[in-house]
């Protein structure tokens, strides 16, 4: 997916920029980049590969080279960023959190207009450069960003570092967030509001869908009003978001806790304790324990110092290794226990398969799994959801193909909680992985926990309901 941070200050922005960007590290593992601007030295940029190290390690020693009161930073799971452009709009640097599903089509269109691409990412066109080329087709930055909104399929939120402040533009449908922070003498924009507390920023407001603002050190200038329709990704609360972060005024941990609480209140399963699969299953499990009225135990713990999030590696072998090695079971808390485990989701089943075997091997009497979202039936065409290249990597689609002979048949029935098709699919997943029982959250409970109208939340991966 990826996350960014940008700031404009009356004094040097470098320290805030460095730490603010680092606080988005849970959203990506491939590349990190920083760019600053000062009248004396112009644009200064650096990009590093993060696949073998962490953002702070890569950038700490070169911080002294960055100068200026304005800057942008990115943790990217896609292309190398920031890109610096010199155009009729002036010089600017750009970072994006984007997924452009019609990249090839737009690339051919721009090449036919005698434009060229200088940047490549893994042998393909750098989508951030493509977005920049769409921007410079406009007469001004706002018209250029609207050109992006009108051409891309997928999603795109962006920060532009210009010679006159930082422009923040949220995705047209609001699928990915931008949060504005303010403190004395500075403004900031970020994907994740957990960037703010330790840097003394307070949340000023959340940009609306398609809204564009320019940040100065002492004021926020609205360049484009927000659109009415929104489709913010529900998976931000289920999985991506850091517990301290808020989107649309709704805190991630609070949503997970509330969702688990409601599931626990409705569940008639007999169990001795509840445990959350780290990290994003913990909030749900704490709520579930309260709703169910049974204790929360840490029966499995994540070894945090060295293992990344397991959805990010592109190779299945490495994903499996990460999923297995990062979680350590505690025999003392598992022995002879009937345990309910809470996890955020089941994508391929890689982690579930390994986790269940370990839990039984370490003495669990029963292993019941409760998932914080509905079954993932549809791939996501809007944001960088996983490293999956095909819907057939979803365990649900594999089972549907086994049952129907066609992975695309009767998807609406399998997505409907309580239908015969749904119950059969869930039963097969539980049996395949040796679970004592398996239950998924419902869309209704998830939306109630999020606290926004269903029409403003994208649940496409569960019910196929959204569109471009």
Automatic annotation (TrEMBL):
Pathway this chain belongs to: Purine metabolism; IMP biosynthesis via de novo pathway; N(1)-(5-phospho-D-ribosyl)glycinamide from 5-phospho-alpha-D-ribose 1-diphosphate: step 1/2
Residues holding Mg(2+): 280, 343-344
Catalysis performed (reactions): 5-phospho-beta-D-ribosylamine + L-glutamate + diphosphate = 5-phospho-alpha-D-ribose 1-diphosphate + L-glutamine + H2O
PROSITE patterns per UniProt: GATASE_TYPE_2
One MF term in the entry's GO annotations: iron-sulfur cluster binding
Top-level taxon of origin: Bacteria
Residues that coordinate or bind [4Fe-4S] cluster: 233, 380, 458, 461
One example of a Gene Ontology biological process annotation: 'de novo' IMP biosynthetic process
EC number annotated for this UniProt entry: 2.4.2.14
UniProt KW keywords: Glutamine amidotransferase, Glycosyltransferase, Iron, Iron-sulfur, Magnesium, Metal-binding, Purine biosynthesis, Transferase
Cofactor, how bound (note): Binds 1 Mg(2+) ion per subunit. Binds 1 [4Fe-4S] cluster per subunit.
UniProt xrefs under InterPro entries: GATase_2_dom, Ntn_hydrolases_N, PRTase-like, PRTase_dom, PurF
Cofactors required: Mg(2+); [4Fe-4S] cluster
Domain Glutamine amidotransferase type-2: 1-218
Family: In the C-terminal section; belongs to the purine/pyrimidine phosphoribosyltransferase family.
Protein name according to UniProt: Amidophosphoribosyltransferase
């Amino acid at each position: 997916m990826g996350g960014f941070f940008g700031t404009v200050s009356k004094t040097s922005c470098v320290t805030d920029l460095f730490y603010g960007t680092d606080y988005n590290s849970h959203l990506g593992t491939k590349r990190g980049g920083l760019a600053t601007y000062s009248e004396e030295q112009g644009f200064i940029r650096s990009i590093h590969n993060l696949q073998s190290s962490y953002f702070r390690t890569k950038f700490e020693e070169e911080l002294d080279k960055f100068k200026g009161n304005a800057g942008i930073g990115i943790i990217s799971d896609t292309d190398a960023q920031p890109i610096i452009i010199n155009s009729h709009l002036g010089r600017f640097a750009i970072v994006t959190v984007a997924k452009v599903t019609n990249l090839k089509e737009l690339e051919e269109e721009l090449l036919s207009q005698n434009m060229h691409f200088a940047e490549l990412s893994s042998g393909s066109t750098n989508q951030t450069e493509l977005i920049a080329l769409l921007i410079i087709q406009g007469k001004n930055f706002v018209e250029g960003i609207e050109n992006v909104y009108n051409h891309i399929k997928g999603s795109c939120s962006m920060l532009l570092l210009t010679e006159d402040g930082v422009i923040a533009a949220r995705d047209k449908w609001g699928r990915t967030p931008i949060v504005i922070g303010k403190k004395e003498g500075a403004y900031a924009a970020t994907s994740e509001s957990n960037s703010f507390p330790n840097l003394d920023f307070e949340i000023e407001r959340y940009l609306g869908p398609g809204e564009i603002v320019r940040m100065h050190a002492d004021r926020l200038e609205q360049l484009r009003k927000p659109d009415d329709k929104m489709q913010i990704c529900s998976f931000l609360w289920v999985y991506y978001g850091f517990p301290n972060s808020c989107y649309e005024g709704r805190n991630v941990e609070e949503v997970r806790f509330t969702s688990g609480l409601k599931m626990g209140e409705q569940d008639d399963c007999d169990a001795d304790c509840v445990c959350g699969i780290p990290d994003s299953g913990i909030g749900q499990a704490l709520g579930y324990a309260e709703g169910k009225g049974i204790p929360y135990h840490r029966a499995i713990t994540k070894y945090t110092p060295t293992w990344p999030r397991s959805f990010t590696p592109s190779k299945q072998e490495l994903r499996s290794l990460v999923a297995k090695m990062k979680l350590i079971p505690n025999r003392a808390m598992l022995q002879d226990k009937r345990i309910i485990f809470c996890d955020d989701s089941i994508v391929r089943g890689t982690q579930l398969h390994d986790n269940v075997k370990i839990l039984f091997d370490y003495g669990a009497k029963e292993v019941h799994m409760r998932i914080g979202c509905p079954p993932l039936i549809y791939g996501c065409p809007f944001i960088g959801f996983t490293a999956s290249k095909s819907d057939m990597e979803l365990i649900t689609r594999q089972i549907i193909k086994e049952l129907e002979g066609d992975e695309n048949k009767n998807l609406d029935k399998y997505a409907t909680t309580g239908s015969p098709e749904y119950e059969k699919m869930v039963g097969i997943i539980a049996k395949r992985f040796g679970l004592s029982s398996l239950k998924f959250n419902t869309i209704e409970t998830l939306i109630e926990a999020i606290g926004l109208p269903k029409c403003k939340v994208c649940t496409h991966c569960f019910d196929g309901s959204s569109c471009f």
